[in-house]
UniProtKB/TrEMBL annotation:
GO terms for biological process: DNA integration; DNA recombination. Residues 89-262 form the Tyr recombinase domain. It comes from the Bacteria. One of its GO terms (molecular function) is DNA binding. Gene3D superfamilies: Intergrase catalytic core (1.10.443.10). This is Integrase. The keyword Glycoprotein does not apply. It comes from Sulfitobacter alexandrii.
Length: 272
């Protein structure tokens, strides 16, 4: 099982659904080509929700792959199931106006979560683990040294003035930079849920999630002097996707000047 609480819960939920649906069928049916149709018929139960439809297929294949690896099946025919959920989140970003509206209704501890993510672009699972010992001095300022949970990569993130304010206002007796309203440690889910709760209170788009702070962060990292390749590596994106996100953010954010687009053009030229 993966380490993430959310991932474990998803595997358990879909595994039990799969088991319940096929409980009267012998396992060897999955060695027959026709089993692909049976699995497609099962996941079609969630066709009203494309994301759940595709997740059902993902977890069915995960189970069948495990069965083959363990020698319980000789093969299966459910690889590369057709997916119907498509989303391009490169154009979903928190604009300065969004952040202003959010900050007007959110308590300080939630504002700190949003600010830190807009400045770092970290996934929520990495964001909630940020601690003071990860702050390092550099010849020109400070940076965060983070080993990401998903890819186990080492990321060095420049500390911008806004992020510096979050770090420097953390009480001296507290190790974690971000905590809940009662000083408790946050989980990825509780941090995301808190942002969602106050995003709704602010009347902002339902599309906005904590993860969508990454467009803001990518722009900040470009301004801090990182190359497109470095930004893409940090975010787990392709160079092209990173460029698209930054370009869109600069165009929809009124306080971003043409200088961002000029820097992006130079970065694209260097990446070519």
């Amino acid at each position: 099982m993966p380490k993430g609480e959310r991932s474990r819960a998803d595997i358990r939920k879909w595994g039990l659904r799969f088991a319940d649906h096929f409980k009267d069928a012998p396992a060897v049916i999955f060695e027959e080509p026709g089993a692909r149709g049976e699995v497609n018929a099962w996941r079609a139960l969630w066709k009203h929700s494309p994301k759940q439809h595709d997740m059902a297929g993902t977890h069915a294949v995960r189970i069948l792959n495990w069965a083959v690896d363990e020698g319980k099946l000789s093969e299966h025919h459910c690889h590369k199931l057709h997916r119907i959920y498509e989303v391009d989140r490169s154009e979903i970003v928190w604009t300065p106006a969004d952040r202003e509206a959010f900050n007007a209704v959110a308590p300080e501890w939630v504002r700190r979560i949003l600010c830190a993510d807009c400045e770092t672009g970290l996934r929520p699972a990495d964001l909630v683990k940020l601690a003071k010992p990860q702050v390092e001095k550099t010849p020109l300022g400070r940076r965060l040294r983070v080993r990401t949970d998903k890819r186990k990569r080492l990321a060095h993130i420049p500390i911008t003035p806004e992020l510096a304010n979050v770090i420097d206002t953390t009480p001296d007796d507290r190790l974690l930079i971000l905590v809940g309203g009662k000083g408790q440690a946050l989980t990825a889910r509780s941090a995301s849920n808190a942002v969602t709760r106050y995003r709704r209170k602010a009347g902002l788009s339902e599309d906005l999630r904590l993860q969508d702070c990454r467009g803001t962060a990518a722009t900040r990292l470009l301004n801090a002097g990182l190359s497109l390749a470095e930004i893409a590596n940090h975010m787990g994106w392709s160079v092209r996707y990173a460029a698209n996100v930054i370009e869109h953010y600069a165009r929809v954010s009124p306080d971003e000047t043409d200088a961002v687009l000029v820097k992006l053009a130079h970065a694209k030229g260097g990446a070519a």
